[in-house]
Amino acid sequence: MSLTRFTTSSIGRKQTMAITGLLLVGFLVSHLLGNFLIFAGYGDKYKHEQAKGLQQLLNKHSNAKQNVPTVNESKKNLAKINALLKSNPNLIESTDNSNIPLNTYALKLKELGPLLWIARLGLIVIFVLHMFMFMQTTLINKAARPIPYATVKDAGGSTTASKTMVYTGIILFGYILLHLADFTFNLFETTSVIDGVDEGLFGIVVNGFKNPIHTGLYVLAMFILGLHVSHAIQSACQTFGINHPKYNLLIKNSSNGIGIALALGYMSIPIFVLIKL
Amino acid sequence: MSSEKTINLTLKVWRQKGPTDAGKFQTIHAKDISVDCSFLEMLDIVNDEMARGDQDPVAFDHDCREGICGMCGAVVNGIAHGPQSETTLCQLHMRKFNNGDTIYVEPFRAKAFPIVKDLVVDRSAFDRIIAKGGFISAKTGGVPDANAIPISKVNSDLAMDAAGCIGCGACVAACPNASAMLFTSAKVSQLAVLPQGAVERTERVLNMVSQMDSEQFGNCSNHYECEAVCPKAIKVENIARMNREYLRASVVSRD
């Protein structure tokens, strides 16, 4: 197989875009499953840990030893703790937040060390290839019709999703940069402190989504993601030659279904956080 | 659909003197057009009037006028070959329009289809794609016995469906990316499903796609507008088949 001929041909480019796109959908699924751990952060076990954390903090600064309190009891002490933290901000780091499910997950990933970087590198290569092929084909497509029609009417083939692939793709690229700045590098310096306790990544996510504008932006981005993916999967199938009257309806419905499921799944997190807190 | 016997129309026709001319729309009033006219006959009537008035008539492609040669074609109100599905422009009748309609008539627009004049475009890029492998090499000789090579009914039907392509170029015109995938895939498919095409299977798809790319057509992004406008209802299933053929050929080819 002449790789140069393949990757510089129209079909080869699209098949490269299709396979990298499908791999990215795979990443989206695993990323979503990981993110669902945020819901677990609201679970009873976690609440207990949070209460314990609050109490430990309180115990450190009041000599009276107390038993581990209930959540409500801890919350009563909040005013005390907040006043304490204000006068002494470095105390925040003294609490252990690794028990929160999302943080445990993030820590486990970090503990992979070089393996994590290999996975990250793979993801970056896949992403760059997808983008590169996208840019090349889009430029060729634009050049293929230098003079546009005065009137254009759909004859019935294209859909909103198919017509907006270029734009949803560009918007998603912008979103990914924003998302990395937001939660991976925390460039916006969102506080990780909830109720006086440093809750690590979980705290950053929850505090971030407390902002309705932030949540709205994410929900909109996930709508666009759903639109992109709903056309992407069926398009990738066609590009690999998977087209058969027996299975076409199944492919189309699965593609739309996966797009909708991913969008709703990802949307549920910021909406849940916004409503819950 | 018009119930009147004759209708009056306002045509906005693309006029371009030659390949390098910028071109512009000309408004032409077509009066008392019989609803029984075909679209091309309507243009004939308009041209007759223009010629009598010492004006340059509208140049357009046509030949058989019975929907089988693939010569005619223009984009009418934004749709290649006009609003009636599975119909070439010559088979579109004026009864499909209403009295007082404004009709935009534009040439098939693609970089690979340079405009010769007005609505006439040069589609020889298609011929060059065919020349790269849209045939089988067979030694001449005695006429072989009928049915000497067994072919399943399914494959025979698939080949015949693909062979329905008349090469009019509406797929390119309708494609948002001006891609020639439906045409090329029909020409690859009609031979790919038959034993006679198996001998040159690998080189055929590689060479034809390579030629298609060098003609500066766009890339298919699976909108299926081509299938919707095709006067011969060529299916995008053929594009999938060509994608499969190309992947297979890329792997097995020894070049």
Topology, element by element:
The complex is a heterodimer of chains A (277) and B (255).
Chain A: H1 3-7, H2 10-35, H3 37-40, H4 44-61, H5 71-76, H6 78-87, H7 101-111, H8 114-143, H9 160-163, H10 165-184, E1 193-194, E2 197-198, H11 200-209, H12 212-239, H13 248-276
Chain B: E1 6-15, E2 24-34, H1 39-52, E3 75-76, E4 79-80, E5 102-106, E6 115-117, E7 120-121, H2 124-131, H3 153-163, H4 170-174, H5 181-192, H6 201-214, H7 225-229, H8 237-252
Parallel strand pairs in B: 1-5
Antiparallel strand pairs in B: 1-2, 3-4, 3-5, 6-7
Helix pairs in contact in B: 2-6, 3-5, 5-6, 5-8, 6-8
Describe what this molecule looks like in 3D.
The complex is a heterodimer of chains A (277) and B (255). Chain A has 277 residues and is mostly helical. In chain A, 73% of the residues lie in helices and 1% in strands. Chain A has a two-stranded antiparallel sheet. In chain A, helix 2 (10-35) packs parallel to helix 13 (248-276). The longest helix of chain A has 30 residues, at 114-143. Chain A is elongated and about 75 Å long. Chain A starts with a helix and ends with a helix. A five-stranded mixed β-sheet of chain B has the order 2-1-5-3-4. A two-stranded antiparallel sheet of chain B has the order 6-7. By secondary structure, chain B is of the alpha+beta class. Chain B has two domains: 6-117, Beta-grasp domain (Ubiquitin-like (UB roll)), CATH 3.10.20.30; 123-254, Alpha-helical ferredoxin (Fumarate Reductase Iron-sulfur Protein, Chain B, domain 2), CATH 1.10.1060.10. Chains A and B meet through helix 2, helix 8 and helix 12 of A and strand 4, helix 6, helix 7 and helix 8 of B.
